[in-house]
Write a structure and sequence with these properties.
The complex is a heterodimer of chains A (200) and B (194). By secondary structure, chain A is an all-alpha fold. Chain A contains eight helices and two strands; from the N terminus they run αααααααββα. Helix content of chain A is 67%, strand content 2%. The longest helix of chain B has 45 residues. The chains are: A mainly alpha (200), B alpha+beta (194). Chain B: Its cofactor is FMN.
Chain lengths: 200, 194
């Protein structure tokens, strides 16, 4: 790219133009797996945002010290360390969320969004741009997961952020909190998102 | 800034340094979080005990009894609650491996007359929105005050007395099994005491 993009554009692109979930379709495993409620989506999004932020910052800082041939193992060690830190901190201070997210926290390590940004962006750009990129991408990921979780929770459980608006006996579309519902909701949300973001 | 050449020496140094730093920081964080982690687990246990037992003023967690039944591989935790030294209830951990996605672990509180005081779900991985309803008041309340010697803990489909959760018979079955196990342990320990 010859033209120089501003930090504002750099930030916005992660949320809209290159939204990791709706546009780039990265990190599908946690996206589909944990979004059975809006709160879970938000928690997973924030955990991922933190790991992405830290790994982008560190990778960008030490990029000149990492020989090219071992860059992938180096990135993975950095990412895995931050994921383990997130896991320990959540278990100690937010046990409720830790139980909800379960196996998906260790799986942040293999979320290709994080390695993808380390490889494609942080290893080529300066610290400040990398941080802005991580924030944009992380917030885009969090928004997408929360939206997906909200849609599935509304249809599947008749509640939003655990606030019920139908009675406990009401029949809800259970399909939406089961795995197939994740694919259906994701597909329709992607259609709407891409339609709206392209017309603007 | 010049990029480091991918020589054998450079690669080894880079990876060694990164792993040492990563290992050291993980050890550091582990040290910090160890206390709060144990604290969180203990609090969870005490909260569960408060829910399944009548008011108690001893410390059941410290007086825990580990009981090892013959046909079960792990020992089972039994907590005795007492108020001013008189026995007011027993809480037993029950579990079943036959949930819809594996382990279901519950804590059952029994009154001194062996009727169920309350049940709290400790661990489960059931389907959200279906099997997870085993935590709901609507499901649990049918167990309160029942004596498992007179109340069959199997779902009605299997000839028992438990109204199954809609769409989650397997979860209901596992829940009943876990409750049954807790009850069996309670009876066995009472017999061995006498």
């Amino acid at each position: 790219m010859a033209e120089k993009i501003t930090q504002k554009e750099n930030f916005i692109k992660g949320i809209i133009k290159d939204n990791p979930v709706f546009v780039m379709l990265l990190g599908m495993c946690p996206t589909l797996g944990v979004t059975s409620s809006a709160f879970n989506g938000l928690g997973m999004g924030i955990a991922t945002l933190f790991v992405l932020f830290m790994s982008n910052a560190v990778v960008s800082m030490i990029k000149s010290q990492i020989p090219n041939k071992v860059r992938i193992p180096a990135f993975i060690i950095i990412i895995a360390s931050f994921v383990t830190i997130v896991e320990m901190v959540l278990e100690a201070y937010i046990p409720f969320l830790y139980e909800q997210l379960g196996i998906f926290i260790p799986l942040i390590v293999v979320n290709c969004l994080i390695l993808g940004r380390a490889e494609a962006f942080a290893s080529k750009n300066d610290l400040w741009s990398s941080i802005v990129d991580a924030l944009g991408m992380g917030i885009g990921f969090t928004i997408a997961l929360t939206a997906l979780g909200a849609v599935r929770e509304i249809f599947g459980s008749g509640s939003i952020f655990d606030f019920r608006f139908v009675s406990e006996d009401a029949n809800t579309l259970i399909l939406f909190i089961l795995p197939p519902g994740a694919f259906i909701a994701l597909a329709y949300l992607s259609v709407v998102f891409n339609k709206v973001s392209k017309t603007n | 800034m010049s990029k480091k050449e991918s020589t054998f020496f450079n690669m080894i140094i880079a990876l060694v340094v990164i792993t040492i730093v990563a290992g050291a920081s993980l050890g550091f964080i582990n040290d910090i979080t160890e206390g709060p982690k144990a604290q969180a687990k203990l609090e969870k246990k005490i909260n569960a005990l408060k829910q399944v037992l009548p008011e108690f003023n001893n410390s059941p967690v410290e007086e825990v009894l580990l009981y090892k039944p013959k046909n079960i591989k792990d020992s089972i935790e039994i907590y005795f609650g007492s108020l001013n030294d008189s026995h007011i209830g027993t809480a037993v951990i029950g579990s079943s491996e036959r949930g819809y996605s594996g382990l279901v672990k519950i804590m059952v509180g029994f009154n001194p007359d062996e009727s169920i005081k309350n049940i709290v779900v400790l661990e489960q991985k059931e389907t959200p929105g279906l099997g997870t309803k085993m935590k709901d008041e609507r499901f649990i309340r049918q167990f309160r005050g029942k004596k498992p010697s007179e109340f069959n803990l199997k779902p009605t489909k299997d000839g028992g007395d438990v109204d199954a959760i809609t769409g989650a018979t397997i979860s209901t079955r596992a829940f009943g099994e876990a409750t049954q196990m807790a009850y069996d342990v309670l009876v066995e320990t009472k017999q061995s005491k006498n």
